[in-house]
Please model this.
Amino acid sequence: MNSNNPNYVHPDYAVHSEQIKITQDIYYGIDKAKEYLKPRPLEDKMDFMNRKSNATIDNFIEKLVTIQSGLVNRKPLVYDTSKKIQDKLQALQFDTFIKDATTAAARDGWTYVMIDVPKEGGEPYFLQIDRQNVINWEFIGNTKNLKWVLIREAVATTDETGFVTEYKEQYRKIEDHKVTIYCDVQGSLSEVEVIPTQLPMSVSVIKLQDVPPLYDIAKINIQHMNVYSVLDESTMTAMIPSLFTKGLGLDKKDKIKFSTGATINTDNTDAEIKWIELQGSSIPYGVDNLKRKEELMQERGSKFISDTMKSATQVQSENIEQNSRLTSIAQEVNRSIKTIIDIFCEINGAKGEVKVEPDFKVSIDQALIQPLSMAVTQGNLSLETFLLALQEAEVIKIDSVKEELKRIKEQYDEFTVEPTVLPTDPRTDSKTER
Model:
């Protein structure tokens, strides 16, 4: 690999670029995804354009990425820093930055995080860089530590009037204490500026896997969208009655009258005119096809979607696998952000560490909560054990089970009314309880 040639594209970028694009296009929704709709055989061009315009998508990729990122970032960041550093990071919304980076890594397989400082000086800030925008890179030996990266970026420029904005593509090579800017000059990238910096290598990579983890599901999601689009149009067509005529001699100049309510009258007594509904015999097949694709996507994405229709052994096995995967993601995120946090602390004359909490306990099955509650009511399970289970599974958040039991008792005592003995009624010579 020639690191001095900015026109060189890393071979791994070329191999995975299309996979990343497909996964991202489905993730971003129908406006991007509809470009993967295919015309049916002999379908009229205008009909296809209308079907494309009306298409919708059940976006499994967006759901799975959101769930995965949410699980990894469901707890607050752990700050092992001074209060000053923590306040600065929180002011920069570092937790949101980490969640965005986790989302991009879960979607694309890799993503990049960076710390930078304005040219004119000032406070450092953080950037998340999509995998598609880093076209070349080099690691230090067999580690995941980057020696340098080449980033493709768009730079906004305005004309002399200040009203017209244009975006020009440029490339930025970042390495230890130096940034080199390249621009296209007559079809080839040429060096236009070298900027010395105080920063060491300020870009780090969150590297989960080379092929985007959800790429295969994205391909199935495209098939699902195509089938759903055709089925939706076919269902609408089958719902609209069609006009059937028999013996209506238009060429014999039969008198025909059209009136409101889709009524047609003619003086031809031999003619038969009626509205009929299409059977739609292929619709059930299309529905079954959709269900099979949905089940396939759910099966492959089951590591992110809970399914109560499983045995305890299956649930335990999948929870272990899921927690292991989530832990691996959290550890990789923590490894990556250590680089930029170290630089941030050094700029501020301090030391410290920030981590994603890698503790992923198995959550209680929601379907079990009601039976357990009934067991408490029937006296087969103590309230303390029930509260401990809910607290451990993070279903509820309480400071202490013991204190919660005291509060429950106080609440019970407050609303419990002792029977009041009334004076004897002289008419009945009896006591009445209320």
